[in-house]
Task: structure prediction
Amino acid sequence: MPAQLLHILHGLRVLEDLQRMGPPSLRVLAENLQEPTFFPSFCLGCQGPDIFYHNQRTRPVGLEYGSLMHRRGYGSVSAVLLGDAIQWFQHRGVPGPGLAYSIGFAMHPFLDRALHPYIISRSGSGGNAAETVAHAHYHIFLERLLDAAFLEESLDEPWMRAFLPWLGPTNPGQPAVCGFRQREVLAEPARSLADVLVPLLSRALATAYPERAGRDMQLDQRLAHVFTDAAYFYEHTDPVAAGDRIHATARGGVDASHARYLAAILYPMQVPHDVDVLNSGRAEWLHPCEGAGASDVSVRQLFDEAVDAAKAALLQVWEANDQEEIAAAIGTASLSTNDAEGRRCQPKYFSPLTLERLLDEQVMARWGGPSVQP
Result:
């Protein structure tokens, strides 16, 4: 799955395009969602089920629902979230944070389906029980590298104008991602909107997964903890403040394995120029699925394909008459690696980048050799 920023930028690009060519009511909504009042709610929604993976501190956890939504049924969850919210907006013409979140949530699967094969191939991570801790770190780390590199490449594009106010200044030589005000964009809405979003998600999950969520007597409590822990994660990995915080906790030395984990989940202090993480040079890479073959497509091309797919789906959603139509527009395929028939496959083939070296460089840049204890 792409990390935080690519999902936000993908959702923003969809809004920008719909503001120009959508039906009148959708144009109004797309414009409203880019305003500071609603943009953070939309950005949090763009994270989709990824927020569930941050729920590893507070029990009972809702972690399993993140995995479940990545495997199947995402369109059904989105249909419940969107159905009532869209009708409410079409009657009143004014969005609320629930609608902003739901629209962002519906954008998430399109970028996942487009980029996940590339990320898995380039990180050498199969996403199964046999996956090593090192490869898990490379997967997470590559997601952050893609965020940083793509943001750097997109700063001057006109559709970025609504995002630029959420970037602060950086130190000389640091990439723009180091100024990303993640606490304001993601941590604060995760904390402040939980009371609004927990009931919406609870109903959506129980409808989409009656055999599991429908019988879960602790579902609301799990969801409350999802938002609590997501806010904690976004706040503590906020690139604006993370540098000082990480250095403060590491003054006495940091364990080497923990240092690599921290370097993987934090945004990089520099974007590598000797490794083409965006595949702008169109190098060939293997699709992880059996029989899918090789591709030379770039991250930019995959991003654009995901934008087009999400726009088409949202236009269908806007005209839909029931939840089944909405679910079909969002899609039922998994959010990971799918074969040509749209069936979820076990990754088998990889074309990994030199992520071990790049991760080591990030560790050295943050702590240097002497401060990292073996």
Observations:
- The chain is about 60% helix and 0% strand.
- The mean pLDDT is 92.
- The beta strands are 254-255, 285-286, 294-295, 372-373.
